Amino acid sequence: MKQSGTILSFGSVFFFCKTSIVEHLGDTLNGNLTLKSLQSLRRHSSYVHDIIMQIKLFYKGFCDASCACIHRWKLNDSFITPRPGSRYSLMGGNLHIAHLNKQEDVGIYQCMASNSFGTIVSREASLHVAYLENFKTQRRSPVRVREGQGVVLLCGPPPHSGELSFTWIFNEHPSYVTQDTRRFVSQKTGNLYIAKVEPSDVGNYTCVVTNTVTKSSVEGPPTPLVLRVDGVMGEYEPKIEVQFPEVVPVAKSSTVKLECFALGNPVPTISWKKVDGASFTRKVDINKASGVLEIPYFQQEDAGMYECVAENSRGKNSVKGKLSYYAAPHFTEKPQDVQKTIDETLVWECKASGKPKPSYRWLKNGEPLDPMEDRVQVNNGVLTISSLNLADIGMFQCVAENKHGRIFTNAELRVVAIAPDFSQNLLKAQTLARQGGDVLIECKPRMSPRGMISWRKGKEALRESHRVMVLDNGSLRISNVSKSDAGMYTCVARNQFGVASSAGSLLVKDATVITSPAGHLDVTVGESIVLPCQVSHDPTLDLKFTWFFNEQLIHFGSHGAYFEKVAPQTLSTQSLISPIILSPPGPPVDCQVTKMTETTASLSWGPGTDNHSPILSYTIQARTPFSLGWQAVTTVPELLGGKQLSATVTDLSSWVDYEFRVLAINSIGTGEPSKPSKKARTKDTPRVSGGGGGRSELVITWEPVPEEMQSGPGFGYVVAFRPLGAQGWMQAAVTSPDASRYVFKNESIPPFSPYQVKVGVYNNKGEGPFSPVTTIYSAEEEPSRAPGRLRARSVLASEVEVTWKPLPWSNNRRRILGYEVKPTQQEAATVIRTAGNKTSVLIRDLEGSSTYYVCLRAYNSAGVGPQSNIVNVTTKKPPPSQAPVKIMWNTSNSKVILKWDQVHALENESEVTGYKVMYSQDKHSRPNVVETNNTSLELSLPVNQGYVIQIKPFSEGGEGISSRQITIPKIAGRTHSPSMARRLFESGCAIWIKLCVLLLPASVVQLFETRVAPITEYVILVPSIDKCTHSHLASVLCTSM
User: Fold this and answer.
1) Which residues form the Fibronectin type-III domain (predicted)?
2) Cα angle vertex 364, ends 358, 370, to 5°?
């Protein structure tokens, strides 16, 4: 398989041979390198592409300063020899070609790198040139057809190289031909096909050809289309003019498009099907009025026979073609660098997938490996070299290839030769053996090739017998050891490169025997027991006791307080017992998910061991990729008894992977959990809605599936829709996993028509579920009428009420979602929107004494309708801008008497029609309001409470400005209350303060009068009187009026 690259022709080009790679960075590049034409060079004056070809090496420094490489290049299997003055030169292994020649430099390139480790070759790269010449013909003859006849307008692209795309201009730019059920532009031939010619088709047609590599375009000469005057073409059956080959090979994971279009009268309909009857997968996209069948991410299961059927009322025709699947080789197993010793055997396995099945061959140092020797075998990618020697050292490459591609992978073989060496593996200085037992003394020298091993006891050569044997690996084995076998043993190793030895002593001891008898004991969890261990042993040895629990080593001190060693003298009087322990249950078995819904999971399991105490109940836990470990879940039934072996888990989240486990409980406690169930996902599908959009559009929207829920690569959506009441579904594949919207546009879609829609999902592993079917509406038309009976009246100086007669809420083409009211004053305008079928709106925050012009439009999701007649309205004069002043108050018998001066409106203000008196118990509570037409008011208020009072005027223009707050102290029942009055003096203000002193049996009022200064605080203290029960302290602030 060759990849595509891009450079400019007639310029300079670099081929990079990269060999200083730190790690395995992947296989070398291999590709078709396409050159842009001279036209592109003129358009992009200084733009030059470099082409990189990498060689994959095996370890750091393959071509570093200490181990430089020699690079050579081949073109079409011939070595390129750079010479001074030639167009070819090497720069650090990179091939530089100056003044690129379109004829001489096109071909297959390959790089070879060599150093002291060996030689490796890169994959091949093919260099091509992309160009697009101009049309040679300047004029084309008119094409004459009858009305109703089908016609094919030929494009005839000029000489070119590289993939092309085609469009057609109708009459003049930018009027391009729009493809639909009647018109089709083939991207294979470039021709324009009109299934049935209509009078509106008459005109000049120009083919526009674009090179997708160079991005350059040329226009052909115009082709006139003329209607014949000798009659109208009658009806005839479809004639398929655009069809696909009988066999279409398709690469794995690529996108394939099949074209099919027919001429006919009436205009034929195009449909697609698989010959074997299988339905299309959801990723298959049928577009351009069924003229193109597109299959993205092509896989093995998509291969097969496809049929295109063209049909109208006069008959039908069909064509068939086979999509065959192929895949270039891809390595699944690669050889690794290895170091071996002389005479060892090398086995390297090389495996690759592909269709057809790849074949294998091996290279050594860039040349084919010669398998003529018996010790070199190559079998289906497996290389075996036996009896290795120093001549086998080198760089090896496995080549896997089929007709669709060739790939390389590399490995280095090193063969070492060394004299025997014990420095890393000395014999043990002392080896202990039990009398009557067996002993193994290992001898593992490092040497290559493998030599001879011999043994000595003391200074004498050791003789082998039925009891004393030297094993194949050189180790010494002695059976039925006796005291006489004790002594010094020496292992001697030799090969052609030298001799070495290592020695160690063998000590023979009496056997250690456990003498405690066995026994049994039933115990309960929580009890303490003592297990004895009495032994006889060699007195020269120190004993080490090791205990096992259920064949597992006990680490004393790391098991909490469960195990403790007891002094040996205590053990000597005990006997060995095996306890039967009552403990929590063992883990339940075979935990399975039997059914999943959006929010529930049905589980089943089997009982584990009860550990001598019956199981009383079970609990279930769950975990997800988003939870913090295992969490308890809600079940039905809520309580799971000891005999309950199934349950339903509820309150789960949709579209989430869950694992479940079960725990058993008995009277001793809760046991270990079961093994987790296999992951299971709760069901869910994208939530679908839609509607709105432009004319002739159906807009479908949904909530994208999060990345963590997509379960693998190749994720996409399948959008299915149909008119309400129709049988078959139309489908479209949306390959972007982030998409949330699909728009189907077709001139045949009626406005505001109900459609049933659903959205499914798929990935490389298969198809997922569809969402529930939802009904949405196609794009509606804008309102066609203006509202009537528009009226406007001023309510206040800042408010105007607008009323109108509503339009019908909906019909079969549009709805009325609300109205837009636009009040205009000079050039400023603010649009106010209402929702629903309202017939009035109150416009606020306007200016007083101002004229406004008001108009109205209905709106819906498609836009706004026509404007109503314009009406004008003048707002009322503003309310008075002056607040009430000279407010006086007095209290008597739970009443508050208020008086104030009349507020006079200015010339541009509306006259005062009354006053609002607002009172509350504090500044923060909601006030009570009393209206009056006078400048005085008497309020009856509850006693023993203080009040805050404000007064504001109002007029037909609205409410005026409030007075300052007046604070009235608590009103005591059946007494005189404090009162205060103010009057102006020439130089300040005077204040009277009545201080009421409670006397028995009557009250005496003392009046103090004084002249005070403005904005000054005075404190008046009433002295004690014989019959007073208490006195008052008053603080008064005199403020200037």
Assistant:
1) 587-685, 686-781, 786-878, 880-974
2) 80
What are the tens digits of pLDDT across the range 5-37? 433 333 445 555 544 322 222 333 333 343 433
The answer to whether residue 975 scores a pLDDT higher than 70 is no
Q: Which stretches of 369-527 are assigned E, i.e. beta strand? A: 376-379, 382-385, 394-402, 405-416, 418-421, 430-434, 439-441, 446-448, 452-457, 460-461, 468-470, 476-478, 487-495, 498-509, 513-514, 520-524
Gap between the Cα atoms of 235 and 233, Å rounded = 7
For the segment 645-670, the average pLDDT, to the nearest whole number, is 90
d(Cα 1022, Cα 1031) in Å, to the nearest integer? 6
How far, in Å, are 80, 111, 426 from residue 76 at the CA level? 10, 12, 58
pTM score: 0.45
The pLDDT tens digits of the residues spanning 282-334 come to: 888 886 566 899 999 999 899 999 999 999 999 999 999 999 999 999 999 99
Cα distances from 679 to residues 464, 601, 652, 661, in angstroms, run 61, 11, 14, 11
| Whether pLDDT at 358 is above 90 | yes
Q: Which residues contact 736 (CB under 8 A, 6 or more apart)?
A: 716
Residues with Cβ within 8 Å of 675's Cβ and at least 6 positions away in sequence, in order, are 587, 589, 591, 661
Residue 200 phi, psi (nearest 5): -70, -10
Q: CA-based diameter of the chain, in Å?
A: 144
- The residue-averaged pLDDT of 696-716 equals 82
Structure token digits, residue 917: 């008196």
CA distance 691 to 536: 92
CA-CA-CA-CA torsion for 620, 625, 628, 629, nearest 10 degrees? 40
Residues 6+ apart with CB under 8 A from 89: 82, 95, 96, 98
Whether the CB-CB separation of 642 and 605 falls below 8 Å is answered with no
Give the residue carrying structure tokens 């697009």: 132
Residue type, 301: E
- Cis amide bond preceding 750, omega within 30: no
Please state, in angstroms and rounded to a whole number, the distance separating the CA atoms of residues 296 and 283.
7
Identify which of 753, 761, 867, 884 has the alpha carbon closest to the alpha carbon of residue 812: 753
The single-letter DSSP state of residue 392 is G
Distance in angstroms (rounded) separating the CA atoms of residues 682 and 654:
5
- 622, 640, 638: which is closest to 630 by C-alpha? 622
AA identity, residue 519: G
Single-letter amino acid code for the residue at 457 = K
d(CA 396, CA 399): 10
CA-closest candidate to residue 589, choices 573, 605, 578: 605
Cβ atoms of 4 and 31 within 8 Å: the answer is: yes
Pairing state of beta strands 346-349 and 338-341?
Answer: unpaired
**Positive or negative torsion for Cα 63, 66, 67, 68:** positive
Task: Note whether 162 and 4 are within 8 A (CB).
Answer: no
pLDDT reported for residue 17: 57
